[in-house]
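seq as requested:
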Amino acid sequence: MNALFDTLGATITGGLILLMIFSAITNMQVLSYNMQQQVILNKISEDLISGRTVNNVDYPGLGYYLSKVGAGVPAATDPIMVAISNSFQFRGQLTPSSSTSIFLITSEAQVNGVYPLYVYLDNMSQPILGPFWLADSLEIAYYDENNTAISNPDSNHDDIRSAKFAFNFTFESYRPDIDKRLVRYPAVIWKYFKNLYL
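C-alpha cells:
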C-alpha cells in the first residue's frame, strides 16, 4: 500500500514539474515573440519617420514630406488645407523645379480594432506610404510661433508654425485569442514648418 502511495505521489509531483517546465517554455516563447514584435515596430517607426534605402533606392520618410509644407507655394495661396487632430493636408514642392503637390497624412477609420495610417501625394486614392497600423488614431497637435497650442487649428491655418505627431504603432500579441492586448510602440515627432516662417 505504501508503494502505491509513493508511486502515486511521485507521478503527481513529476506531472506538476513537467507542467511547470512546459508553462515556463511557453511563457519564454510568448515573451520572445512580443519582444521581437517590439523590435519590428521600432524599425517600422524609424522607416516611416526617417525613410529607408532598399537596393540602393532611397525611400523618403514622413520627415522629408513634412519638410515640404509651404515650399514653393505662392503667398496668396494657403499652404495648409486641412489641420485636424487625425489628418494634415498641405501644399508644397518636392523639388524647386517641380510643380506644387498636395500631401495628406491621415489615420483612417478603425479596422478590426486598429487604425490604418496613410500618406498620400496628389492622388488621394493611392497612398505612397502605408498602411501602418496604429493602436490609437493619429494625434496631431498644432502650435503657433510662440509654441502655444492652437485650440482650433483648422480655422487658424495662418497661425500654424509647427506640429506634434503622436503615433502608437501596434501588433497583436502572441495569442490574440487568449490575450487580447496589443504590443504597442509609441513614437512622437515634432516638426517645425520652416517654409511658413520665410
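Residues 142 and 163 are 4 Å apart (CA to CA).
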